[in-house]
Amino acid sequence: MPGENLSRDEARERAALLSVDGYDVSLDVRSAVGDDTADGPRTFRSVTTIRFRCAEPGASSFADLIAPSVTAVSLNGRDLDPGEVFDGCRIALDDLAAENELVVDAQCAYSRTGEGLHRFVDPEDGEVYLYTQYEPADSRRVFANFEQPDLKAPFRFEVRAPEGWTVWSNGAGELADGRWRFAETKPISTYITCVVAGPYHYVTDSYSRVLADGTTLDIPLGAMCRKGLAPHFDSDDVFLVTKQGLDFFHDHFDYPYPFGKYDQAFVPEYNLGAMENPGLVTFREEFIFRGKVTQASYEGRANVILHEMAHMWFGDLVTMEWWDDLWLKESFADFMGAFALVGATRFKDGWITFANRRKAWAYRADQLPSTHPITADIRDLQDAKLNFDGITYAKGASVLKQLVAYVGQDAFLEGARRYFKRNAYGNTRLGDLLSVLEETSGRDMATWSRAWLQTAGVNSLTPQVLLAADGRVDELAVVQEAAESHPELRPHRVAVGLYRRSADGSLARYARADVDVDGPRTVVAELAGAEAPELVLVNDDDLTYCKIRFDETSLETLRGGLGDLTDPLARALCWSALWNMTRDALLPARDFVDLVLRFAGRESGIGVLQMLHAWANSALVNYVAPEWRPVGERLLAEGALRELRSAEPGSERQLAWARFLATVASGAEELGLLRGLLDGTAKIDGLDVDQELRWAFLQPLTAHGVADEGMLAAELARDNTASGKRHQVRCLAARPSAAVKAQAWAQLVESDALSNALVEATLAGFAQPSQRELLAPYAEKYFAAIERVWRERSIQIAMHVVEGLFPSLQHSRATLDATDAWLAAHEDAAPALRRLVLEARDDLARGLRGQACDAGAAG
Predict the structure, then answer these.
(1) Of 147, 285, 308, 760, which residue is the catalytic one?
(2) What Å distances lie between residue 126 and 202, 444, 716, CA to CA?
(3) CA–CA–CA angle 825, 827, 830 (5° rounding)
(4) Letter string b/e over residues 360-394, b meaning 16 or more CB atoms within 10 A of that residue's CB
(5) Neighbour-count burial of 809, counting CB atoms closer than 10 A to its CB (0-12 exposed, 13-18 middle, 19+ buried)
(6) Widest CA span of the chain, in angstroms?
(7) Which among 638, 628, 564 is positioned nearest to 597, based on CA atoms?
(8) First vs last Cα of the chain: how many Å apart?
(9) DSSP per residue, 118-144
(10) CA–CA dist 514, 801 (Å, integer)
């Protein structure tokens, strides 16, 4: 991997020297079908012509290409020796002219890792499907190019494909003389070009809008998936959200969608949630639901559709110059996804999901040793790969929500409109956006940027309440704190809410004040004289990005009546705050489990409920004292079973509790019920045990030795699909056997035969919380193997393996010491590898602190 890296300095030097006029890319993928037994990588022919200019004639530079072999290279009509100019990653270009034409004829490799041109063979019918995925720098695995975001250019693609296939790319295409030819794109970056090819199931629709100048904008819409998923494909809902999003962004951006058609491809074995290729957005096919799911899943899909659509403007039309400013696209898309979700679709509680789910990702990332400012220091492509994280996405979006409150929504949107018009098809840095926001808002954006974009860490806000002799509030203040490692105290625009019980027992807000928190202590003068509160909620309505803390009275109120809070957003914020306190070892994990057991059943928001299930399980696995863990396992399983049986038949809540039971089941009663639900000897009224739920039930049965390999083989015969194969592989690796673990380890570490999706499935099965003793020998093996894994595997697979095999279930000082020893002995290891290990080490240390807190509660 180091030879494939590209530094920021190299990219800047090349951008100063070169400008690109256009690409012609011809791919021949007819080799995608046929015999799979040949030795060596399966390859396809890639011929690229690049027209570019050089500011300093006579200078040298390089083009990027990762390929098994290069057949021919021609520069300005002069044939170059591929053996001399191509090193496997780069093509050396010497003695450049003012105007140049480079032609590269290469044999590129199909991917099984989701990087480059991924080839998937459907086990259900043997059909082959292709798609590309490039971000941040994998288009060079498919065609020769200048792989950096600021060397934009128009692209013309041509593809020869097997007979009967359809091919799609960013522009509109047509088949003639055995070749698919596509319209030239607008100037775009290499990483958002795209090709999808195969016998995909494809449906169409259209969008039309009359623009402000009286002209009509017509956008052809398309959506596709594998043929095997076609019976489950609810394309009508995908198109509904798509049209709602296009309306919303046209209403607010005043810049017509600039890329012609709008196709959306749901593809197999995808590493990401989705990718914003203009005109051809790609999604993971798990967004096509094979079984019954809750509305939270539909909301999540809608959010991703809108997130990628926002990228058409933030990221595709206007692109960051280098990956330092990745937030200029990802933070904005994350914010705009939620903004449009609430403003344009049926999912009006989108901000609750944002507060509860997305911010949880941000809070975790912002407390890791690898935390960084939203505008990050990205030295090279490996840094960039790891920076698609909770800081860049969720914290960035949270900060933008704070920015909207700071400058006002109208000024924010007007700034966006000017930003698009001034920088269309160009590249920008932080200052380009801040300058237009200063124009539209009149605010000092430099000060705001220094506090929010250029410093790391999360502040905590805690209320202090002093009562007067008459029992009313004498003084209410907000205390702001920061971690020693990141001491910045930021300005926060917050709402402070006061809550008391009503006659009917409900807990409702009776007073609220908006205040600018600045510095270590801010008095909220507007609330002096109010009736004494039972609960003070700082950051009510979720206006800023911070960790909420509680005074003692408020915490006791929540312990006794969290479920009595009537406002769903306030309730979600309290749950999030209590979870942060658990992770920070300020609340015993068993107390959090108790709160979930007592109040989760009353939670009205299905997305919040499912998040509580995930947190409760994490508390049990990572934060409760080991000696209490068996008690916690029994209590959660009993609670899940109780709620499942009492839930309304056929309801979302019933399904959510059934899935949670599958996560925590360990005793004979619940495992027996799951076995009975599979073989038909048990029944719960209204619960439809569809194929996806069957696999969910098989997971704990396999991990606890109730289901064997024969049962899994029979289930795969029942569901002989790509999804079924992934589920079977996961369950096979979950079996409680030393031989099974050794085989899974060998498949992950000693071989590269598994595709990316099956690597993920094997990792998910390998590490079972109930098998800590069985997994203990692999802690030492892990530290002996990870450098070789990092060196030999693609970065995507290496990341999966390094993260997934870390001995996180071995909660002991010895594991922490072994991690520290590896870090001390490998200071010269790849920075991205060290980052992954440091992050895992921090999670482990946090778990040990949480367990100590929980053990103290028992004493």
Answers:
(1) 308
(2) 19, 60, 16
(3) 120
(4) bebbbbbbbebbbbbbbebbbbbbbbbbebbbbbb
(5) buried
(6) 92
(7) 638
(8) 51
(9) EEEE-TTT--EEEEEE-TTT-GGGTS-
(10) 47
Provide the CB-side half-sphere exposure for 470 (13 A, CA).
8
Residue 761 tokens, joined = 């499935």
Rounded CA-CA distance 237/254 in Å is 26
**How many whole angstroms separate alpha carbon 311 and alpha carbon 458?**
27
**Eight-class DSSP state of 600:** G
Strands 274-275 and 166-169: unpaired
| Exposure letters 814-830 (e unless 16+ CB within 10 A, then b) | ebbebbeebeeeeeebb
DSSP state of 177: T
Could you identify the residue written with the tokens 């924010």? 412
The pTM assigned to this predicted structure is: 0.96
Q: List phi, psi (to 5°) of 616.
A: -60, -40
**Beta carbons within 8 Å of 417's beta carbon, 6+ residues apart:** 253, 254, 255
With tokens 């259209």, the residue in question is 206
| Cis before 136 (ω within 30) | yes
Q: What are phi and psi of 480, to 5 degrees?
A: -105, 135
358 Cα distance to chain centroid: 10
- How far apart are alpha carbons 449 and 434 in whole angstroms? 8
d(CA 120, CA 126): 9
Task: Please state, in angstroms and rounded to a whole number, the distance separating the CA atoms of residues 186 and 153.
Answer: 7
Q: How far apart are CA 577 and CA 555, in angstroms?
A: 10
Output the six-digit token pair for 812: 């002991």
Residues of the chain under the 50 pLDDT cut: 1-2
H-helix or E-strand containing 724?
Answer: helix 722-733
Number of H helices, E strands in the chain: 29, 28
Rg (Cα) of the chain, in Å, rounded? 28
Structure token pair of residue 122: 């459907």
Q: Which residue, chain included where needed, has tokens 């097997």?
A: 162
Half-sphere exposure of 61 (CA within 13 A, CB side): 29
Nearest to 769 by CA among 625, 600, 617: 617
Closest of 138, 155, 66, 63 to residue 100, by C-alpha: 63
Q: Kindly list the strands in the beta sheet with 460-467, ordered across the sheet, starting from the edge strand earlier in the chain.
A: 521-523, 473-481, 460-467, 547-548
The answer to whether residue 308 is catalytic is yes
**Conformation bin of residue 770: beta by default, left when phi > 0, alpha when psi is -120 to 50:** alpha
Count of alpha carbons within 13 angstroms of residue 223, beta-carbon side: 21
In whole angstroms, what is the distance from residue 461 CA to residue 444 CA?
A: 24
Could you give the CA distance from residue 115 to residue 624 in angstroms, rounded to a whole number?
39
Q: How far apart are CA 361 and CA 368, in angstroms?
A: 11
